[in-house]
Amino acid sequence: MMSSREKLPEVQLVRAMAIIGVLSVHSTSFATLAMKDSSFYLLYNFFNVFMKIGTPTFLFLSSFVLFYSYSQRTLDKELIKSFYARRLKYIIVPYALFSVFYFVLVHFLHYRDRSLEETLGKFIVSLATGKAYTHLYFIFISIQFYVLFPIFLGLFKRKPVVAKWAVPIGLALQWGFILLNKYALQVPNKGSWSLSYMSYFMLGACLGIYYPKLKAWIVISREHATATKIAVWGMLWLTGIGAGACHMLMWYNTRLYGAAYNTLAYELAWNVHTYAAALMAFQLAHLLCRHAKPWLVQSMHRLGELSFGIYLIHPFFLLLYRSFPPEHASSRLLHFWYAGGFLFALICSWATVSLVVRVLPHAWVVFGQVPAVPRSRRAVRVASSS
């Protein structure tokens, strides 16, 4: 929901990039363990580490859309009520449904002998903490942000000066939590808590609130180009690529040679890499909207629309695919098999979500809010105004 502000078709393209990142990481997770003797291990490590932009980009984009949509509206009880009603209907209900689905699936695969009392207790804890399956922590984090959103929106409305400091505030909150956790708290599953991602939440908030003013600094185009902006764009891309390469190399050395770096070094490389990548994806989406072939823009736009559903269902297809590994396979066949996992998960998930939203009257129960019919090529093709 974008209220009455300018429509931003590029948002769906960013979502498409994010879900491709998620699928890349998940489809190569087994290969990073099993293919260490391969001469292509660097490539597997690249797709598994460099592409870890998915979750942070989704969180950044979710925050951006929320603040972009709601920052110009009156914050009252009706707005808050409507906001939470939509989150309950389109996010929490599908999350609960898939939590049941994956919990039951795992139970029958691995825990059939567990008692009913233990099973129910385990399910309640899993549902409340996003642990019914490995990828559902992302929804758990999103729910935490939904709780925080009206608080920060109200604060930024009453104190606009605070909104201008959203980026450093987000970085301070995130790194304060990281340092406190390392040296004092030692919270288990730190990555399942919103404080671990506050820099992305606040980056999205700042960009969403001030987008009309910041757009000229974000969108790469001849109309916006100045020497200063070109330098800023260049520094952003150099930083993102450089930090991503550093992040990838650290994990390459760790996995292949047993190198051990300070945990803060991993945190810093990941944060700089994914923080810059979220902005880079936004810039790339603008460029694609303006210059890419219509079929590519339309396909990515539809992928973005379906991304939430694809995120929810894709681990099932990966699990199914991995149940039939090749026997006595050559290394070349194994490479094709791992690549096939990515394609199988993407195509099957895309087809399943598309079919469900077309034929099921209340498909939002399963996959959230998804347009049943792709938008026209012309609508998707519209580029943001300068």
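the 2nd protein, sequnce then structure:
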Amino acid sequence: MVLMDNDTERPPVRTVRRLSRPDGASRGRGGQRFVLIGLILASVYSMFPVWWLIVAATKDRVGLYQTNGLWFSGMHLWENLHQLFTYHDGIFLRWTANSFLYAGVGSLGGTLVALAAGYGLARFDFPGRNVVFACVVGSFLIPIALLTLPLYLLFSEIGLVDTPWAMLIPCLINPFSVYLAKVYTESTVPYELLEAARLDGAGEVRIFFSVVLRMMTTGGATVFLLAFVNTWNAFFLPLTVLRGEKNWTLNLGLYNWTGNRLESGVDLTSLVLTGALLSIVPMAIMMVAMRRYWRTGVTLGALK
């Protein structure tokens, strides 16, 4: 047996370089940049029509047709506003009041009805509850345009055409709002609290107004906001059931001005653009004022 000396030279050991895996933070930063770029592009795409509308509302007739549509060419906004508010005896202010009436009162009543119906579907066990809920889900899948003609025929029979009730009554019933109210009720109103209130002697009506509504503030605000925006932007229903211009909404009135661009020597295009700019201000104020409620409400519905 031959013993090898420890000093015997050994072949050199080759160092193997191990490829490191990118850490989670790097991957996260890459994904965040991608999402941020997508959000920026989506924001620019969404704000582009609003920017064009702001620029167009500041121009006179010559600047509107002969200058760059994406940049200012003189400040004539106050002149356009004065002409808008005084044209045709201030009919634009009447249309604005009508829109606030239909969207505000109708959405408030519709929210109350939706919360009551959603609470009943979520916390009461009665025969046919699943069938009723299936009808609710199926009904909000039907386009509103298909229901406009039956509503017109019904209101014609009872004499409600060309009255505010022709707009307010359809706003009181919104199946999608009932669905949202049911989801929010299941997430926020526990059975134990309702049983405790019943043991204390509270009736069902008192429980709903004193307990359920207070716990459903976030969900109710979300339902009201969605209903308000939907009613404010409604067009086909008021076009069908409203005849006289004194009962028109903003959208319907501006649409009528669009069809008559030149009337009595007045360029109605500038009035339409200025009125369209003003019509988005109430919704913007509503979104900003209620952002605390609808942010939490959307998250709550998503978790459910």
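The mean pLDDT is 84. The first strand starts at residue 262 and ends at 263.
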